[in-house]
């Protein structure tokens, strides 16, 4: 959408409707003088913004719409896993009505239909996946730290590595540097311990009710090692790593 069209839109009160599956949420845009930065984390949103958000029981999401002189902002928080999956598969449509006639003038759907279709490649016998979690209860509990890894091996060398950690940053952390470090290397004790040092440089855990920052760093280390122990038992053992 070009700047000219956006400016025209913002000259009037904007009525917006968010269509999700069988449910819709209607609201009006609120003018703001401050640019809203994209953080991906509701915790980094000011308390005033959070208080202004509306909650839809049907759609199971928090949402609000703002505009300044040049931009239109849609702020949403969706924590329900089922809703998240439905949005990724079917998309969420944002309709705008600038003349208050309750008509769907034009809209934007995100994600674009079919855009998630090829997001995940098929697993083969040389691609391995593992998930680890530490929490007070095994089920229905927020993890102190959790981690997932997807790793591919080709000719005894790591050809692809994707690692993520939860509970060690403001939002779940994808470890770019750690993955890049592993690529092109063989599975060995030295490779894993050196990669763990890179991992520690990428995370910024804080102390909270689920543990101190040092404790979370220790958990991150242990879960990272656990991936390799679980996936490559013939090459790696905890005794050799610790």
The gist of it:
The chain is an alpha+beta fold. The protein has helices spanning 3-9, 47-52, 81-90, 176-182, 189-202, 213-231, 238-241; strands spanning 15-20, 23-28, 30-31, 54-56, 61-67, 72-77, 92-97, 106-110, 127-134, 145-154, 157-166, 173-174. 28% of the residues lie in helices and 29% in strands.
What does this molecule look like?
The chain is α+β, with helices and mostly antiparallel strands and 242 residues long. It has helices at residues 3-9, 47-52, 81-90, 176-182, 189-202, 213-231, 238-241, and strands at residues 15-20, 23-28, 30-31, 54-56, 61-67, 72-77, 92-97, 106-110, 127-134, 145-154, 157-166, 173-174. The strands form three sheets. It has a four-stranded antiparallel β-sheet. Strands 3, 4, 5 and 6 form a four-stranded mixed β-sheet that branches. A four-stranded antiparallel β-sheet has the order 9-10-11-12. It is elongated, with a radius of gyration of 22 Å. The N and C termini lie far apart (55 Å).
Percent helix range = 25-40%
Structural class: alpha+beta
Q: How many strands, what sense, and barrel or not for the largest sheet?
A: 4 strands, antiparallel
Ends apart, CA distance between termini? 55 Å
What spatial order of strands do you see in the largest sheet? 2-1-7-8
Secondary-structure element order, N to C? HEEEHEEEHEEEEEEHHHH
The share of residues in extended strands comes to 25-35%
Low-confidence stretches: 1-22, 39-47
* Annotation, overall tally of beta strands: 12
Radius of gyration: 22 Å
Globally, the shape reads: elongated
Mean pLDDT: 75
Number of helices: 7
């Amino acid at each position: 959408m070009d700047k000219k069209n956006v400016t025209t839109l913002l000259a009037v009160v904007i009525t917006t409707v968010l269509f999700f599956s069988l449910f819709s949420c209607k609201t009006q845009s609120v003018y703001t003088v401050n640019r809203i930065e994209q953080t991906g984390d509701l915790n980094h949103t000011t308390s005033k913004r959070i208080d202004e958000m509306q909650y839809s029981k049907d759609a199971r999401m928090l949402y609000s719409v703002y505009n300044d002189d040049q931009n239109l902002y849609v702020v949403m928080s969706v924590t329900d896993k089922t809703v998240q999956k439905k949005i990724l598969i079917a998309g969420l449509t944002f309709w705008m009505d600038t003349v208050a006639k309750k008509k769907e003038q034009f809209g934007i759907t995100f994600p674009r239909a079919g855009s998630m279709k090829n997001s995940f490649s098929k697993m083969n016998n040389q691609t391995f996946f593992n998930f680890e979690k530490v929490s007070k209860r095994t089920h229905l509990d927020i993890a102190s730290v959790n981690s997932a890894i997807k790793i591919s091996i080709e000719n005894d060398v790591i050809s692809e590595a994707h690692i993520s950690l939860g509970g060690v940053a403001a939002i779940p952390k994808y470890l770019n540097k750690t993955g890049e470090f592993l690529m092109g290397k063989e599975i060995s004790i030295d490779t894993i311990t050196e990669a763990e040092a890179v991992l520690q440089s990428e995370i910024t855990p804080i102390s909270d009710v689920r543990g101190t920052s040092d404790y979370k760093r220790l958990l991150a280390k242990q879960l990272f090692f656990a991936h390799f122990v679980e996936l490559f038992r013939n090459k790696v053992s905890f005794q050799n790593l610790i």
